[in-house]
């Protein structure tokens, strides 16, 4: 029996990206059974664009959007055997992307989910492009809980910007947590790894997806990571802390600048990574800070209203 794929996409004012995304979806050799969009109060015609391309649109109030809860709602609404998550700005890099990712999911019986490679978009900064190569290398792999001794917290890494999950298994294990500042994908994977399942990374299946964060944006992103890690201490207790990963990134990114002989970027490197470190430390101590300050330092400011 052929596997039915439900493509699930959270959308918020995505009119600029959606036409390219739906064009890429239509070109896939492995076509989805259905496409379901959760649109969070878009005001730019996103819902109409999605409907024109045959997607089912579920409206979501802005105050009700939740990274985990909204995606869990989409999983429950889906009818496919597997659910494939995309974000509105993650464009499949080739026509085989879905097929390759699904092949990785079924490569072994005990693989619960798989995720693909994220490639820098046109115009990506050097820092953004390097982060993509650091997080999404050229070599595919399958990881289990046993890999935590070698990979640390990276063992539980994946991204719902381009991932596929076995739907019934995901539902049986609580789907995605509601109320997280973000990181619903990592937390769901962490629980599955602890239960004995595996995750596959497929480097051959790619999407173009990257962000050119400002230095302030780097601080806010790292602040939210610190909040997640402090509130979900079980992740670090189970898989290891983020210090080794951060150290590797800082060292390798500097080596990358040196290899390209773009030494004028070194001051930016110092400032950018210093703000990342500061943001992460502030996020880890969010409970010591006044609420208004947490809100101002966070990338997910509406979350703090809860």
How would you summarize what this structure contains?
With 306 residues, the protein is α/β, with parallel strands linked by helices. Helices cover 44% and strands 18% of the residues.
Describe this structure as you would to a colleague.
With about 300 residues, this protein is of the alpha/beta class. Helices cover about 45% and strands about 20% of the residues. The protein has helices spanning about 20-25, 45-50, 65-75, 95-105, 125-135, 150, 165-170, 185-195, 215-230, 235-240, 245-260, 265-285, 290-295, and strands spanning about 5-10, 35-40, 55-60, 80-85, 90, 110-120, 140-145, 160-165, 200-210. Strands 1, 2, 3, 4, 5, 6, 7, 8 and 9 form a nine-stranded mixed beta sheet that branches. α5 (about 125-135) packs across α11 and α9 crosses α10. The radius of gyration is 19 Å and the shape is globular.
Task: Determine the mean pLDDT.
Answer: 96
* CA(first)-CA(last) distance: 44 Å
Percentage beta strand: 15-25%
Q: H/E element string?
A: EHEHEHEEHEHEHEHHEHHHHH
**Uncertain stretches:** none
* SS summary, helix count: 13
In percent, how helical is the residue content?
40-55%
As a whole number of angstroms, the C-alpha radius of gyration is 19 Å
The largest β sheet comes out as: 9 strands, mixed
By oligomeric state, this entry counts as single chain
Number of strands: 9
Structural class: alpha/beta
**Looking at the structure, what is the overall shape?**
globular
């Amino acid at each position: 029996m052929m596997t039915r794929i439900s493509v699930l996409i959270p959308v918020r004012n995505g009119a600029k990206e959606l036409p390219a995304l739906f064009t890429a979806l239509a070109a896939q050799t492995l076509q989805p059974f259905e496409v379901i969009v959760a649109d969070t109060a878009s005001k730019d015609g996103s819902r109409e664009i999605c409907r024109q391309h045959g997607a089912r649109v579920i409206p979501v109030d802005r105050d009700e959007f939740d990274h985990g809860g909204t995606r869990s709602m989409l999983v429950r609404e889906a009818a496919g055997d597997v659910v494939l998550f995309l974000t509105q700005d993650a464009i499949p890099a080739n026509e085989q992307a879905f097929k390759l990712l699904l092949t990785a999911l079924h490569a072994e019986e005990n693989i619960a989910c798989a995720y693909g490679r994220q490639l820098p978009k046109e115009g990506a900064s050097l820092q953004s492009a390097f982060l993509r190569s650091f997080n999404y290398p050229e070599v595919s792999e399958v990881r289990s809980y046993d890999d935590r001794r070698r990979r640390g917290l990276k063992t539980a890494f994946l991204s719902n910007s381009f991932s596929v999950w076995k739907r019934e298994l995901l539902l049986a294990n609580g789907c995605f947590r509601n109320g997280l500042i973000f990181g619903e994908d990592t937390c769901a994977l962490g629980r599955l790894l602890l239960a004995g399942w595996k995750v596959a990374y497929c480097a051959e299946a790619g999407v173009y997806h990257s962000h050119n964060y400002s230095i302030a944006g780097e601080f806010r992103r790292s602040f939210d990571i610190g909040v997640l890690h402090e509130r979900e201490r079980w992740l670090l207790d189970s898989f290891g802390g983020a210090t080794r990963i951060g150290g590797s990134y800082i060292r390798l990114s500097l080596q990358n600048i040196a290899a390209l002989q773009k030494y004028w970027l070194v001051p930016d490197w110092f400032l950018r990574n210093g703000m990342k470190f500061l943001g992460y430390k502030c996020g880890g101590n969010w409970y010591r800070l006044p609420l208004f300050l947490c809100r101002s330092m966070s990338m997910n400011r509406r979350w703090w209203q809860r």
